[in-house]
Amino acid sequence: MRILLTNDDGVHAEGLSVLERIARTMSDDVWIVAPETDQSGLAHSLTLSEPLRLRKVGDKRFALRGTPTDCVIMAVREILPGPPDLLLSGVNAGANMADDVTYSGTIAGAIEGTLQGIRSMALSQAFRHADGHMVPWEVVERHAPDLIRRLMDVELPDGTFFNLNFPNCPADAVAGTEVTSQGKLDFGISIEERKDGRGYPYFWLRFGDRHGDFRAGTDIHALRENAISVTPLKLDLTDYAVLDRVKRALG
Fold first, then answer.
1. N or C: which end of the chain has fewer CB within 10 A?
2. DSSP letter at 97?
3. pTM surpassing 0.85?
4. In Å, what is the CA distance from 79 to each residue of 4, 70, 154?
């Protein structure tokens, strides 16, 4: 099995090293094409106004000055000798759940893999910023290999991929795996104004406390209960429940 790895935290991110160890439990044919620098929050964006600079940093390992989407396209169309059987994106430092999937470069890597016809999975490891940048990588490293193998046998329609979130708890304390729907969080982003050395203003976007829908069955609830969340996501954004209503209104 040929496996392609990418991420949005950059080619030198610890989560990518964790993902490589996970992938190598399943195959020796592992390829890495990841961004040269951190691309968090860039979602499913393409680089169209600048050239893509590619650098080989090891055997089957490449750094690209571009987005996760760029990385997958370059890997499939230019770098790999043939299409991969599986794309894994991550492991992201921090959960990617609820509305945050729309911003996530980690999710975008899996989206692009799905668009390219590759079975794709996004992996994210939850942690608390209040604890410092102490990410419990041992959770995803222990539990992901078996979970990925089991998900490989699931028949998927075109345009569907898996979003996997691993809870912030000791690896021995994981309370199973839940198949979940996408939850709902409030916006949670504030703007902080500062001044530079000459007194001109500049701004930072900051995440604050998040509140939202913690109903059972959602990805948010699963992680709160120390369970692994498996959410099937699809690329078709059509709201079919509203489709006929709009047809009647315009008919």
1. C
2. -
3. yes
4. 11, 12, 28
Q: CA 92 to CA 105: how far, in whole Å?
A: 9
Nearest to 90 by CA among 45, 52, 35, 129: 35
pLDDT in 10s for each residue of the chain, 251 residues:
999 999 999 999 999 999 999 999 999 999 999 999 999 999 999 999 999 999 999 999 999 999 999 999 999 999 999 999 999 999 999 999 999 999 999 999 999 999 999 999 999 999 987 777 799 999 999 999 999 999 999 999 999 999 999 999 999 999 999 999 999 988 778 899 999 999 999 999 887 766 676 789 999 999 999 999 999 999 999 999 999 999 999 98
**Contacts of 153 by beta carbon, 8 Å cutoff, 6+ apart:** none
Q: Cβ distance 43 to 35 under 8 Å?
A: no
